[in-house]
Amino acid sequence: MVDALKLKIKTLPFGTHAVECHLDESFFNGQSDAEVRRADVDATLNVTRKGENTYRLEISCHGTVTVACDRCLEDLDLPVEVSYCLNVEQMGTELDDSNDELLIVPSDWRELDTAPLVRDTVLLAIPMTHCHENEEDCSAVMLNVLDSHRVETVPDGEDTTESETTGTDPRWEALRKLKEQ
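^ that's the sequence the OP posted. Answer follows.
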């Protein structure tokens, strides 16, 4: 699967070529910080050789990834529907990926591994926070544990110190008084 995403750019004929592959969790788990538990994603990579050293990559992915819910840590299935376009130019001797729309690869590269581009395209489609839409879908056991550790607020009418009502620590107030003297 990953080998299909390694493009032989030097010998690629002019025109558009499609590469299709299915991505599962093993594709994402090669990364130490991968948060994907399971994946069922179909990826299509359209590569257009436009010139001797210029290419256009169009990545589109659709399917489902399973990640941990931030609230209850249970599995949460998230839909993935994403596409990304990138121009590639072969020039110079150094890789330059500082531009989101242009990737510059060294002239002597014979192969371009697009797996990291496809992986990042899918991972960036995952929201930063991922929770079950309805709290009822979360694990009841975990919600009970969270509730047992919840800090209770002070009911109206009870005595509170100044630090609790204003959010200021009295030690800072003492230091301010010293400074004013």
